[in-house]
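It would be a great kindness if you could assist me with a short task in structural biology. The full record is reproduced below for your convenience:
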Amino acid sequence: MMRPGDGTDRILGFADGAETDDRINLSAYHLGGLDEVLFQADGRDVVLRLGSDSLWLAGYLHGHALGDLSADDFIF
């Protein structure tokens, strides 16, 4: 679970999709949904910008596209 003030964190081996158990818990940020999360591609990584915090999905773009992430992959 990411919380405001956590700074930078990195996730390795994230599996997306509703059929997986992997979820990124962003509930501490009180976001209304996926449209409030800023995603950026950085090489093979995806970076989620959460105010002054960031979460890196390391290597996610190796075999995935940025658009593969959906609301099913997050807990708001």
User: Anything to note?
Assistant: The mean pLDDT is 95. Residues 6 and 53 are 6 Å apart (CA to CA). Residues 8-75 form one domain. The first strand starts at residue 8 and ends at 12.
